[in-house]
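Regression report. Comparing outputs from two consecutive submissions.

Submission 1:
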Amino acid sequence: MITVAYFWRIKPKTILWALIHMGWDRLWLKRTKYVSFWKLLGTGKGETFTVRDGTALRWGFIVVIPREKLDTFNSSRGVERWRKKSISEFHAVLAPLSVHGLWADRNPFEIENSIVKNREWSGEVVAITRARIKWRKNVIFWRSVPPVTQSLHQSEGLIGAIGIGEAPIGLQGTFSLWASSDAVKNFAYRGSAHQSAIAATHREKWYSEELFARFAVLERAGRL
């Protein structure tokens, strides 16, 4: 199994179409039998994780599919609809290297069956974080985010990063592209801002569910 991420930029006149298809495309993905996991995503700058971060001009989704179905999915009507409406596209084909936590009460990324082994990979890496934030903890969480995101965007080896979310508030995360696994680890385990956030996470218990996953980038196209 592989994970494929798509993000499209659109024109303002296409916003209503995009909002409609964030609903309609659920039916398409549910009916695509070989898709074992999918999430439709809004995006943002990923700086504060509040509503003001969001943009209506970039949308995307993540799917988990068999590797042999990549060409089929990539040329499917659902994907082609977005291509026709978009002004730019980023997509990446990914294989999981490490996964901690759950997304929607499950681990959708089959690390044990990954086509790439962690110790063997030396290329580009995508990191996906996702959390379900407890409602009563939102304000505390928002106050703690800016130092971490500032540190993220200044990190050596970062190629690009955006905020992602299944909803404007409460179901949020990041999608970041890095030059190497070492670059991700240096940010995650050596950055003081991120270490403080980890400590605060344990202390404040912000999340009712969280996931952190790293992926080998098998191929990518476009600009994140």
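Submission 2:
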Amino acid sequence: MTEDTRDGVGYWAPQCPAGAHDDPGFRRDHFDPLSETLTRGRYVRVAGEMAQSCPVTHTDGYKAGIWTVSGYEEIQDVHRAEGTAFSAFPVLLQDLGNTRPVIPMESDPPLHRQYKQIIAPPLSRSAQAAREPAYREVTRTLLDAVLPHGRAELFGQFCTPLAAHSLMEAMGVPGPDRGRLAELAVSLVRGEGADGAAAAEVYDFFGGLAAQRRRAPGEDIVSLLCAATVDDRPLTETEILDYCMILLPAGFETTASTMSFLFLLLAERPDVAERLRAEPARIPDAIEELMRYATPTRSHTRTVTADCVIGGRELRTGERVYLNWAGANHDPRTFPRPDEIDLDRRPNRHMAFGFGSHVCVGMHPARAEMKVALEEALAAMDDLRLTDPADVVETIGTTWAISHLPVTFTPLR
């Protein structure tokens, strides 16, 4: 990898070889979605090729084997059959450590909708628009800490604390506890919680917080959960803790990871950065296109609950299905020239937030945070560049991240 990153190509280099995954026969039968050969943008290239050549295929590259669905229309078909032919449990390729479905992500229709609606109001588009001034204040504080130095490690010094603060504030987590919960969120989303220790610590923390909120309710998400009803009954303690358990990594780590990819691409595409600096009104569109292009949250999984046919292939009850959203976002049948960043792309119905009933409930907070982050960073930093592509660290998981992103820049204030 070191030789590749010093050849003038930069870090994001989808055209670089991806080992055995460059062979069509190999990826059709042996695709490994967690292969280290698929970093540096290779994943999205290979996934797009799979969407075109083998949109539905059974691969044995990960553990006992799994159906891999990469085509845009084929993934839509799976999502539309959720609750009838597919279950969201378990939702991750890696073992999250839980023995029962965690709500709301691993719940199925029709109950799934009721669970999502509990926290929908504070996460709505209008509610998040009202939160923008608070996000902007935190963002400027983080930028003020790095601007005098002309360099920063953006994932650790900017993306992570911004996303963590926003989620923890929404959930009502006290400041002193936020650092440890952020560590646990990263552990869970990276599939490092198979022994259950991280999950147990999260449950213990939110059990205590829920007890406090029952005595003294606030306007935070944990208070909403404690007061909520589903099917005309209050949520059980287990349901409340399960909800908090999944919100933590889904609402914080995924946003930080996505933001890290946006800054990587801007650092390597000064033309895009310059256009957005000159036309900040284009930033929301740019976020959608950059998310489609990089697709940091690359998949969830489903379990077949009734024999069915997807893309001409017969899937049997009990089999697992890997929804390759990066493939869908690079499917040339849906996105012309999918390997290009096109800020004028219309329409842009990408799957970076999923699709259908399980589309990410936190998509509006994520968009609001990323919009403010890009607006403020581009206004404060000129000539944003990677310090050295060889120093970039990409972390593999269901959600991928540029988990070490050292950059240099010229302060503008």
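Expected: both submissions complete independently.
Actual: both completed, but the second showed a warning that disappeared on reload.
Relevant detail on submission 2: The chain has 15 helices and 14 strands.
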